[in-house]
Amino acid sequence: MKENWILDIDEISSNLKTDVNNGLSTEEAKKRLEKYGPNNLSEKKKRTVLSMLLDQFKDYMVIILIIASIVSLFLGEITDAVIILFIILLNAFLGMIQENNAEKSLESLKKLSAPVSRVLRDGKVIEIESQYLVPGDVVFLEAGNFVPADGRIIESANLKIDESALTGESIASEKIAGKLSDKNLNIGDRINMVYMGTIVTYGRGLFVVTETGMDTEMGKIAKMLDNEDKVRTPLQIKLEQLGKYLGTGALIICAIIFIIGVMEKRPVFDMFMTSVSLAVAAIPEGLPAIVTITLALGVQKMIKRNAIIRKLPAVETLGSANVICSDKTGTLTQNKMTVVKVYTDFKELDLNDQYDNKADFLLECSTLCTDAFIDDKGKSFGDPTEVAIVSVFEKNLSKKSDLENKYPRVAEIPFDSDRKMMTTIHKAHDNNYKVITKGAFDNVIERCKYILKDGKIENLTDDDKSKIKLENEKMGNNALRVLAISYKNTDDIPERLSSDDVEKDLIFIGLLGMIDPPREEVKDSVKICKMAGIKPVMITGDHKITAMAIAKELGILNKGDMAVTGRELEAMTDDELYKKVKDISVYARVSPEHKMRIVKAWQRNNAVVAMTGDGVNDAPALKQADIGAAMGITGTDVAKDSADMVLTDDNFATIVAAIEEGRTIYENIKKSIHYLLSCNIGEILVLLIATLAGMPMPLKPIHILWVNLVTDSLPALALGVEPADKDIMTKKPRPKNENIFADGLMFRIPIEGIMIGLVSFIAFLFGLRENLTNARTMAFAVLTFSQLSQAMNARSNKSIFKVGLLKNKYMVLALAVSIFLQLVVILTPLNAIFDIKNINIYDWDIIVLLSLSPIIIMEIVKALFFKTK
Ligand code: ATP
């Protein structure tokens, strides 16, 4: 290990062969990437396609069937054995493709939320994926970032880093750029170094990368840890259990069929093959893969609607969400701020009309107190509130850089959403500094002792304060965001800057009012929420009056709803909040810490809460919420990392869209389950009835396996991508932990299964009038086709004509392929291999009628018993 902390920056740069002012060149970075490899903690080995294929054969029943067919190969049943093996291979192959697709789409999801870093390359600041960082890169850090690699700090502006992931120390440590003298320091004491995976909680900084990937301190730990296991959703876990029960049930019935068959003196080996084939067909082994694919495809659809799911279980939870707590700025509003009003010297100036030079001093001070900037091409960087200030300044006065050259910044206390203020200190003359503080009105005015009247500094009286307060309220009522601006002159700056020492005895200059128009699409989304039984709640750091004005405009704050401030919230006990929370639609002037209480109070009321957030301090609430939604554009790495979902457009409407997708995905998974289980019941039943009735077996093992192949995958997958029901957002949210067999499935599955079994058996009886081959052909055909009818039935509790016969084009395709395959087997010479024969037109009529009867019957049942709009 190199003791980089005892070196000065020149030594480090020459060791790393880099230039801290310009960073590496793109070419050099490329070479180093080849040499050092990507900046990743090596992940668990991915499953290869071959291992996925082999996994398909892990199922006991499949292994038994393979052994059985090899035995029958030796006993001379060559054709049957070969076909069985072929079908099993085909099935395994399909299973592998499904799993591979599911895994790939989950993989690409991970890539979408890959972390990025701001680095200096070729003298320019660019953003790159953190995995491409190399030693020697110069990287920017700001509050909310994860440190992307290990390195030595070159610049620190109040940089504080939470290193608990490495050191266990929960208090963030202050970082400096100077060199240290002690060689033997623990990680926690190396205060001029930063380490991968730790969190910047405050301030800004610049560091040069010394180690990447597995060479980092985190990498050393990662070597010792086993990486995360696959995450499964609650539904997947429940289905796994259900699958076990159903599998056992199917096995028992197969065993019964076998025992009765043997007692009836049927050939033991035939009975064995039949029962094992039936078990393979009837055990819903494809279910987990279908569910994963449906989830993965649904998640892909969500991406198109700007929601990236980071944790798969969120997809299901979304369907139950009944409260959305949303930030205001940028999520409900456009975050396109424009300064429209300036209030100084007790006069309100409307900048929409024309510029007035009385605003000069206020704009100069507020511009100096910003981190935002606008480049030569007019592109803006930084917080929109600050961009608005810089742009009004540059439009009417001069370049921000000229102003900064005149008053260089020497220190700062950054903005944070608890203090709701920001202070910068600038050199004015030799030993004279100008302190500028801007921030939320209430917080700034509290710290002002003087006021600037007509260019003179005077005491700030109560009378002055009430006048300014009235103006603040007026601006708020017009939905303006208000910032108060103040300053003071000083001769010395304390070595350690603290808010209490610096942000006091300030001179009030005036107010800035800026508009941030609501997002148009949010109005519709709020309406949808109300129809869908979801309560939208606004949580904002902004002033109560501003917040209420916007909430009213959006339809969030209605008659009888309450708006409370952070202070009022603090005065409430948890029990009071628990009782009132349902009536509160707006929380204003809150700090991120309050969000946690709000989530918990809702959860005590049994609600499923979605909560948005962007800052470091939002992370705990994002974790606590049932669905934490982080902002994709303005969100910090930490917020994104704690969230279940990332909104790539920071938009409230996206949450509502994701809920709609979440509901649809859940419904579709239910449809696949409905379909597969009812079909399996049908398959078991045909054979059970025949066995009990002492009749010949209606289906041979190859038939059973073929039916399983043709009917199981495609229609079940197509059900997984059914388009959203147009009523989906008019229903109340699905209760948490609702049984998957709710909504009539408890009845529909067995009844429809019995129907499939019966029609197939009736077909068999019809066919028996001629001979066994004819009967088997008919049973084989009807069992397949009636299951395909069942796929149509399972699409909805509504009439399929209302749903739209051809609306799901994947279903149309799936049915067409399945029908085609079945016809090929019956009508072509292949029928000889399957031991069936082509049948006459009269029998075909019966096949069609019997196969369609499940639809006809269910249409009548739906019309009579299922009350749907
Ligand atoms: P939300 O996104 O939760 O709706 P917000 O963006 O309105 O919240 P914050 O960013 O916490 O909330 O801002 C709270 C208040 O702090 C604002 O109303 C404003 O008065 C003040 N403020 C915001 N940005 C700055 C800034 N860059 N400098 C100084 N004060 C600011």
UniProtKB/TrEMBL annotation:
Reaction equations catalysed: Ca(2+)(in) + ATP + H2O = Ca(2+)(out) + ADP + phosphate + H(+)
Entries under CDD domains matching the protein: P-type_ATPase_Ca_prok
Keywords: ATP-binding, Calcium, Calcium transport, Cell membrane, Ion transport, Magnesium, Membrane, Metal-binding, Nucleotide-binding, Phosphoprotein, Translocase, Transmembrane, Transmembrane helix, Transport
GO biological process: export from cell
UniProt GO cellular component terms: plasma membrane
TM stretches of this protein: 81-97, 242-263, 275-299, 673-693, 745-766, 810-834, 846-865
Tagged with keyword Membrane: yes
SMART domains found in the cross-reference section: Cation_ATPase_N
First-level EC class: translocase
MF terms in GO: ATP binding; ATP hydrolysis activity; metal ion binding; P-type calcium transporter activity
Membrane topology: Multi-pass membrane protein
Domain Cation-transporting P-type ATPase N-terminal residues, every copy: 3-77
PROSITE patterns, per the entry: ATPASE_E1_E2
Compartments (UniProt record): Cell membrane
One Pfam family linked to the record: E1-E2_ATPase
Matches recorded under InterPro entries: ATPase_P-typ_cation-transptr_C, ATPase_P-typ_cation-transptr_N, ATPase_P-typ_cyto_dom_N, ATPase_P-typ_P_site, ATPase_P-typ_TM_dom_sf, ATPase_P-typ_transduc_dom_A_sf, ATPase_P-type_domA, HAD-like_sf
Domain of life according to the entry: Bacteria
EC id: 7.2.2.10
Similarity field: Belongs to the cation transport ATPase (P-type) (TC 3.A.3) family. Type IIA subfamily.
Name of the protein this chain belongs to: P-type Ca(2+) transporter
Organism the protein comes from: Thermoanaerobacterium thermosaccharolyticum (strain ATCC 7956 / DSM 571 / NCIMB 9385 / NCA 3814 / NCTC 13789 / WDCM 00135 / 2032)
Source taxonomy: Bacteria, Bacillati, Bacillota, Clostridia, Thermoanaerobacterales
